[in-house]
Design goal:
Layout lengths: L32 H15 L2 H12 L2 H30 L26 H16 L22 H4 L20 H16 L2 H32 L3 H30 L3 H19 L20
Helix pairs in contact: 2-3, 3-4, 3-8, 7-8, 7-9
């Protein structure tokens, strides 16, 4: 018998011993998702003007024979960026999430362990600093550049002048000094939108965009997880493979498209047909993914009985 232990009356009903719970009873701080939401909102506000305004800036002031090549270069760079993003994510996934707050010598799990959580927040911090630095040169760009005689509205081709039929303000395109208030923009929005939706070039561009995003989002979102599950790879290696294999092919295609338009000197309708045709072919070829088969992961209670 243990010394100092008091006798226990076994004839009385004793309360069951309190077993400490090993489950996670602490409440998670669910309000932290608001910061992630606000960060994505700010990121969207900063990224959105780059495509519509940047492409229009190049198209208005670049020479007609080089505009397509310049736009192709811009689109290529926008795709090359995710390559470095995947590589950065691969490096951050190898770093423990609480780096700087815990002693790494006490961490006994490795990135190959399913319980490992990488430093997902570190990539946002690094990319945010680089984005702030890259935004500085934009403050030195002029609002408008000198336009050659061939790019003036009165010297445009018949196809260019009829791109937006019955435009209410055709002179606004090359007058950056003219200020328009919000009420005037809202008043002209519905008629301009109706005109755009009735134009075949714009509708072709919408079809191309839908087809591209339909295939691209599925690949970017689910393919890394597919590599992890079916090929038994870590999250860092899956991101690395996505960055060095898939994205460069897309970048090469975009640059080749701009170079091809420059060589063939395609007009607006020719460019729309080229974009629609190549995207449709790529979409049809992606249907062969359904022919791929892979064994299901062995999970007790899901694919295997207990």
């Amino acid at each position: 018998p243990c010394r100092g232990a008091s006798a226990v009356d076994l004839t009385q009903d004793a309360a069951p011993p309190q077993v400490p719970s090993t489950s996670c009873d602490g409440d998670s701080n669910l309000s932290m998702w608001i910061y992630v939401l606000l960060g994505n909102v700010l990121r969207g506000i900063g990224e959105t003007p780059v495509q519509p305004l940047g492409i229009s800036y190049i198209d208005d002031f670049a020479s007609e024979e080089n505009a397509a090549l310049y736009v192709g270069c811009v689109q290529t760079i926008s795709v090359v960026g995710p390559v470095f993003g995947y590589l950065l994510g691969s490096l951050c996934a190898k770093i423990y999430v609480d780096i700087g707050y815990v002693k790494m010598e006490t961490i006994t799990i490795t990135p190959a362990d399913a319980r490992w959580v990488g430093a997902w927040w570190l990539g946002y911090l690094i990319a945010g600093i680089i984005t702030l630095l890259s935004a500085i040169p934009f403050w030195f760009l002029p609002r408008s550049l000198p336009t050659s005689e061939s790019r003036l509205p009165q010297n445009g081709t018949q196809e260019q002048t009829s791109f937006i039929k019955n435009s209410l303000h055709p002179k606004h395109k090359y007058q950056a000094e003219e200020h328009t208030n919000f009420l005037e923009m809202a008043k002209d929005f519905i008629p301009t939108l109706r005109t755009l939706l009735g134009h075949p070039v714009y509708l072709s561009y919408l079809c191309v965009t839908v087809i591209q995003l339909n295939s691209l989002i599925g690949m970017v979102t689910y393919k890394p997880k597919y590599i992890e599950q079916h090929f038994r790879q870590s999250a860092s290696k899956a991101n690395f493979l996505m960055g060095v294999i898939n994205i460069p092919a897309v970048a090469l295609g975009m640059f080749s498209g701009g170079l091809l338009m420059k060589r063939l000197k395609l007009n607006i309708m020719g460019a729309a047909k080229l974009a629609f045709g190549t995207s449709l072919i790529g979409y049809i070829l992606s249907l062969f993914f359904f022919a791929m088969s892979c064994e299901n992961a062995k999970v007790a209670g899901v694919t295997l009985p207990y």
